[in-house]
């Protein structure tokens, strides 16, 4: 199960690639497209089914799917799946599944609230961390450009043209903001497209394909839509607006600097966003460097950052008892899964 159509399609493509020489049938189903072709593909069953929660429930209600033989449930981007309106659908799906199964939850970030929720849904989970919790990759260069809110668009256009950026992923906080910014970029002869939940699946797929091919210079996205974006060697990510949820910053800038390549993450930050900035810097445990852009110095100054972290009192380590080999690893979640 994935939170977005794009991510479902990406996972399905990977399943086909990895299983090319194996006798496995994989099927992907998601909303925004006709259901009948998906029903036909499901005839005869599948070894791997990749789905968004809403479409999976639709297919179940039409008696197209049975879960009798299900062995493994995977929640990808589990923090999102358990956070935003998906939780009710997830609980409905869990009730339909065989009680004896393995559950795997994957995510780059896990807040304490989401961790508690996850542990309430699954039995006796083991947590495996393959990276430190909520950290940003060292190969990603992070920088803040302080700027007044009213001049963000002008600054973004200046940076794109001045630096001759050819492929830029820009994040906005809202769908309307994404549409508005896209129109302004196009008006300045910068090829751009918006990708968000109000766009049809066809429009989202087309925009992503054109961005990957270089036909579109700037892709403007909201946090949800961007979860399925996986582009090799994406050089630049720009936070036009800082996210409300600090963990989303980690997800956003993680679109660049992949597979060992270098990446640049810029944030255009106004004074009104200082609280959001402080939350992000506390989460990643670093103050992000700042740089004024000549001609765009803000009239409303962005206050100086302070990490302001309280010293952590370390509990005395308990000696491990040999009689309890099943103790959970005391690691925090980076890219993690629970079973």
Structure notes:
The protein is α/β, with parallel strands linked by helices and 339 residues long. It folds into two domains: 5-125, 3-Layer(aba) Sandwich (Rossmann fold), CATH 3.40.50.300; 140-284, 3-Layer(aba) Sandwich (Rossmann fold). It has helices spanning 5-18, 36-41, 53-61, 78-81, 87-96, 112-121, 152-162, 175-187, 201-213, 223-226, 246-253, 274-284, and strands at 26-29, 48-51, 72-75, 102-105, 127-129, 140-146, 168-171, 192-195, 218-221, 236-239, 263-269, 336-338. It has a six-stranded parallel beta sheet, sandwiched between helices. Strands 1-2 form a two-stranded parallel ribbon. Helix 11 (246-253) links the parallel strand 10 and strand 11. Helix 3 crosses helix 5 and helix 11 (246-253) packs across helix 12 (274-284). The radius of gyration is 22 Å and the shape is globular. The chain starts with a helix and ends with a strand. Residues 310-339 have low confidence and may be disordered.
Q: What is the CA-based Rg, rounded?
A: 22 Å
Question: Kindly, what is the distance between the CA atoms of the first and last residues, rounded to a whole number of angstroms?
Answer: 15 Å
Oligomeric state of the chains in view = single chain
- Mean residue pLDDT: 84
CATH third-tier fold name of the largest domain: Rossmann fold
Which CATH C-level class of the largest domain is it?
Answer: Alpha Beta
Strand content: 15-25%
Question: Major beta sheet, specifics?
Answer: 6 strands, parallel
**Number of self-contained structural domains:** 2
Helix content: 25-40%
CATH superfamily of the largest domain: P-loop containing nucleotide triphosphate hydrolases
Number of helices: 12
| Major β-sheet strand ordering | 6-11-10-7-9-8
Secondary-structure arrangement, i.e. CATH architecture of the largest domain: 3-Layer(aba) Sandwich
Low-confidence stretches: 310-339
Number of strands: 12
Category by helix and strand content? alpha/beta
Question: How would you describe the shape?
Answer: globular
Order of helices and strands: HEHEHEHHEHEEHEHEHEHEHEHE
């Amino acid at each position: 199960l994935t939170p977005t159509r794009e991510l479902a399609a990406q996972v399905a493509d990977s399943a086909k690639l990895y299983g090319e020489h194996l006798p496995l049938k994989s099927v992907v189903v998601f909303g925004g497209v006709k259901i009948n072709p998906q029903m036909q593909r499901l005839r005869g069953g599948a070894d791997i089914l990749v789905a968004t929660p809403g479409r999976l429930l639709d297919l179940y209600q039409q008696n197209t799917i049975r879960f009798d033989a299900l062995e493994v449930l995977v929640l990808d981007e589990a923090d999102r799946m358990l956070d935003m309106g998906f939780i009710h659908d997830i609980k409905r799906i869990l009730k339909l599944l065989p009680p004896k199964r393995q559950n795997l939850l994957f995510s780059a970030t896990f807040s304490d609230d989401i961790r508690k929720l996850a542990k309430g849904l699954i039995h006796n989970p083991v947590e495996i961390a393959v990276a430190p919790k909520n950290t940003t990759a060292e190969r990603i260069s992070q920088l803040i450009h302080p700027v007044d809110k009213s001049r963000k668009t002008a600054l973004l256009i200046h940076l794109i043209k001045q630096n001759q950026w050819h492929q830029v992923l820009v994040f906005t906080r809202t769908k309307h903001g994404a549409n508005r910014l896209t129109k302004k970029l196009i008006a300045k002869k910068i090829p751009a497209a918006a990708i968000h939940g109000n766009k049809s699946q066809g429009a989202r797929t087309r925009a992503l394909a054109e961005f990957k091919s270089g036909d579109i210079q700037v892709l403007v996205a909201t946090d949800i839509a961007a979860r399925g974006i996986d582009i090799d060697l994406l050089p630049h990510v720009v936070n036009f607006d800082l996210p409300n949820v600090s963990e989303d910053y980690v997800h956003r800038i993680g679109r660049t600097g992949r597979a060992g390549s270098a990446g640049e993450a810029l944030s255009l930050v106004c004074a009104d966003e200082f609280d959001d900035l402080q939350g992000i810097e506390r989460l990643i445990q670093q103050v992000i460097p700042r740089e004024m852009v000549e001609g765009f110095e803000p009239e409303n100054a962005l206050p100086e950052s302070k990490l302001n972290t309280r010293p952590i009192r370390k509990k005395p380590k308990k000696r491990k008892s040999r009689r309890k080999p099943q103790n959970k690893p005391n690691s925090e979640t980076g890219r993690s899964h629970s079973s």
